[in-house]
Amino acid sequence: MEIKYQREMRHNYLIIEPDSAETESYEIRMLEENKIQGLLNFYLKQIDKKIYYYYEITSRQPLSRMLDSRAVGAEELKTLICGIAKALEEMGIYLLEERHVLLSADYIYVEPENGKVYLCFVPGRDESFPELLRQLLQYLLGKLNHKDKEGVVLGYSLYQESQKENYGIRDLLRLIHSEKYDAETY
Fold first, then answer.
1. Which residues contact 135 (CB under 8 A, 6 or more apart)?
2. Strand 101-102 versus strand 109-110 pairing type
3. Which residues are bridge partners to 7 per DSSP?
């Protein structure tokens, strides 16, 4: 899988050249025919007998770039996890599986004005979503704002939850909406 970027006059694209040149899969048709909330808009292009997946990233920033200049707090963690969960819920409506999501801070896009999260769904990709989410949470530990006590406790609580066997996004949501991690108790 090769990844590059393209800037046009009014649009920016993340472009992925997949390992396999499949163009007729169920996932590709779903992405082309529907605008799925929480997923980057998808376009398939064939150039010189090569297949490319184009993802619209105009006006969005990768999470990694946003966190290069500042630390993450409790509210941003909650927004991020809830945004990922909402995207997964929307994917379920279209029978799209989470194992096809490119879940890395470099490929999770965020609208800076409102914090809305967009995931990159790559047809044909087959990764362990829980493991990728665990790695993302570990990455976020290094980006925590240590002046935000609630954020630090929440970040470590989420990561600790991800260490459990058979955990899922619902476990993280349950933790966010509970008082288990409440900073006042630590």
1. 103, 104
2. unpaired
3. 12
| CB-facing half-sphere around the CA of 10: CA atoms within 13 A | 0
**In Å, what is the CA distance from 9 to each residue of 62, 111, 116?**
20, 20, 24
Distance between CA atoms of 4 and 38, rounded to whole angstroms?
21
Distance, CA of 181 to CA of 4 (rounded, Å):
39
Residue 150: Cβ within 10 Å count: 18
CB of 43 closer than 8 Å to CB of 141: no
Tens digit of pLDDT per residue, the chain (186 long)? 899 999 998 999 999 999 876 667 899 999 999 999 999 999 999 888 889 999 999 999 999 999 998 999 999 999 999 999 999 999 999 999 999 999 999 999 999 999 999 999 999 888 999 999 999 999 999 999 999 999 999 999 999 999 999 999 999 999 998 855 554 433
d(CA 94, CA 150): 36
Alpha helices in the chain (DSSP H): 26-33, 63-68, 74-93, 129-141, 149-162, 169-176
Q: What is the pTM of this model?
A: 0.90
